[in-house]
Each structure stands twice: as structure tokens, then as C-alpha cells.
Design goal:
By secondary structure, this protein is α/β, with parallel strands linked by helices. The protein has a domain of 302 residues: Alpha/Beta hydrolase fold, catalytic domain (Rossmann fold, 3-Layer(aba) Sandwich). It contains 18 helices and 16 strands. The longest helix has 19 residues. Belongs to the peptidase S10 family.
Length: 494
Amino acid sequence: GKMKFHRAAVALLISTLAWTRCNSSEGTKGRLPLHPSPSSEDLLLPVTNDFVNLDKIEELRNASRVTLPGPCSHLEAFSGFIPVDSNRSTFLFFLHIKAENDSRQKPLLLWLQGGVGESSLHGQFLENGPLGIDASGKLYRRRHSLLNNFNIIYLDQPAGAGYSFDKNGNYPTTLDQATTHGIRFLRRFLRMFEEYRDRDFFIAGESYGARSAIGLAQRMLTRKPTEQFPLRLRGVMLGAGFVFPLLDMINSAKYLYCSSLLDEQGRVSFDMQFRKIKYMATVRNFTAAAEQLRQTVFDMHPTGQKSWFELLTGFENHGSIVKPVTPTEVHKYRKYANSEEFKKRLHVDVSRTLDATRAELAMKLAAGEFFAKRTSTLVRVLNNVRVLFYTAQLDSVFPASKMERLFNKLSWRGSAMFMDAARKPWYRTATHNAPKVLLGYEKVAGAVMYNTVLFGGHQISLDQSAAVSDLYARFLKFTSMPPPRKCEESMNPC
């Protein structure tokens, strides 16, 4: 395909082995490796070091501008692919949307999707972005978007998720590898968007996205003084997070039995599957354990095959005990986000397929990462930065009661204070004369807010979008309050 560059930049671009479309009248031909065939339609942004000159960066930034559809066409947005590995074969796709009002005064939020390998566009369209899509496929403006309080980066991560890709199909197998990519992405993103240097920064993720979030937060908190990171990490939001050992969280047999989705026989049978997985993991046969896990609960199996969960409950959708099938708007979103028209808008090669390598990435991570313990990472984050930890009342993947029990077992700076704290009802932030609406429950101790969202399933932000938006606004206020007195200064253990 044809590509356009400034002649002066050709040497730079060749040296970075990444081709990019720029706006000059001089044309030159360039071909990319055919597998997995990105074409000139992918906007690759090789902001790989501090020597890329400012004119070039300005040019790339302008090339990455996006006009969002209809109800959001007035918003300032950017998207493209940033290389994150040393040989430039791994590219992460992002969509960045600036807050409509007072963008310069508002913090920057990095949104990390879960589902292992699901595109962050899922979050943008169905959960918290300004551009929503309904069950008829109609686009609308989401009034309670997180954009009211934050500038947002929607990032498809790890590589292999959403539209992110690796030319050689080398996807991360551990949190560590994915975190290195995430940190590189942020450094390079900040070269293009200098206005965010030293800005307040938040990292948010649900399900597997929460695991990615603690990985990034820990790396930011433990960097050496010589590796100054130009963002101020103010808070981390973890929803229904895959942050405890998987085998301690995932056996939902008892919860499904208590909610009548399984009978006694079904409970025993389902429980037996998890015992098998536990045994395989104990003898360190992680590949077999991952495969068994996929057959037991994951919605990722060959067409026509059903997971044990589906066979026993009849639920095609694994996430909420009140939603047996995937909501229609999810199918509409996938169709739209994968449409040629939308891909062209977002500088994505039209031959790419959304979430195409998701299953492959999930199986690699399942074998390499799912059975690893990341509790120490979580504790380090809890000890050093404000955390919003939230669970969902109707979660059939990581039941809220299990999450609470595991959180209570943690030993962190504020654990004694947390055990003593009272749980209180949490009501929607009142607008003038509006009736009281109960959204869930809240417990605050030290630097941690712990909330349970009523009527939400595993995909909390999909099920209870407005409630989570209210929660993030509360947390933002919480992070701006003076920190609780340091443990060393108080008589009681914090």
C-alpha cells in the first residue's frame, strides 16, 4: 500500500523499523511483514526514544487525531499503535479521549479491560466511555461517563488483546512481561502527550484488568530514583479483581448452589472439576490445569462445545447469576467496533479483526500466569497508594463473599483498622431533590475504600455502569482528602 512521509523522516522511520502515515505530498512505497498482515492503514507511532524530534512528534500526534462518531464528534480524541518492545514487533493499540471541560485540570485515567484479552473498546462503548451503543445498535452519548472526571486512555493490553498485535505472534506469558510493555507504552505516550507530565494519574481495571493494574502500579511505586516516572500515581481502582490466587477465588459451586443455579448433585459435580484443576496445578502441570479451567468455566471453547458451567446451569453467559445470555448490546458493540467504517476512523487496518488473537493469548497467560500468586504485589500497592477495591453482589465468577474473605486475610498496613471498620450503605450522590437510591455498601479504612455494588455481576461496569461512575467520583474525592495519619505516628496499628 502507499505510505506518505516527509523525506527528512524516512531515515528515522526506517531506523525504527516502523512505518507510519504522515501528511506530506512526497510518496514512497513500503511493505510490512505479511504475517499477521498489518497494512498502511495501521497508524504506527514510533515515538521510541527522546531523540525523535519535536516536529516529528507533532506530526504523529496530528496524524493520530480521531473524529468519534455522531454524538461525540466534538470530543478531542486520538488513537494508534505504539511499539513496546526492543525489536518493534509488538504494538499496543490505544484510544485516548480528553475530558470535555477543564481537561488540563483533570487527572489521567488508564483503563485496562479484563476478560483476559478483551479490547478496552468494550469499556468505552458498554461501560464508562462517552460513546455508548444500545441493544438496537444505536450510538448515544453516555451522560455518566468517567470522562466527566478524567481524561481517559483505553489501552488494549496485553499484546494480543483487542487490536494490539505482535508481528511474530509472541504474546506475553506473564504479568511481568505485560507490565514492561505497559510501562513502555506510558513513557512513549507521554512523549506525544507532554501536557500530562506530572499530572495526577489513576489506573483502573476489572477482572484480569485489575491484575494488570496492580502490576503497573507496583512497577511505578518501586522504580529507582534514576528512573523518574513523569506521572503522579494517586489511586488504583480494582473491580472484581483477579488479584488473589485463582484457585482460592474461582470455585463458585457453593454460591451457585445457594442461589439455586445448581442442585446438590450439580454442586458436587462442579466442585469436582475444581478439585481436578487444583490437583493439576499442585503437580505443576499448568497447561493441563489451564485446559481443564477452560472446559469448566471459560466462555472460550470451540463452537458447539459447552463448558461445565453451561451444561449444569443452562447459562451461556458466565458472569452474573441473573443473566443467562450475553446482553444484545454486547453483540452490537462487537459488530460495530469491528466495522470497516469504525476501524478507518481509529486508524486500524480494515483487515484486522477485533479480539482475533484473544483465545491464543488467554491460553498462554493461563498456563504462564493464572496459577502464579500475586498477593505480595497487591499488598505493596495497598501499602503505598490509595486503593478502591470493589466487588459485585451477583458475581458468579469471583463471588463477593469469597473476595471479602480473602481480602480480610491480607496483612497490610491498614488491615487491623479495616477489620474494625463498619460497613455502611452507600447511596447515589444526591442531585437536587432526587430520591435516595441505594447503590451498595462501603467500608473505609486508612487509604482503602472497599465497596460492594448491588445488582452487579462479574462485569460490574457493564451491569451497573452509573453506580461504578458514582463510585469513581467518590474515590476521586477520597484521594484528594489529606491522608490518614501515618501508622508510625499513631498509637494503634494502622
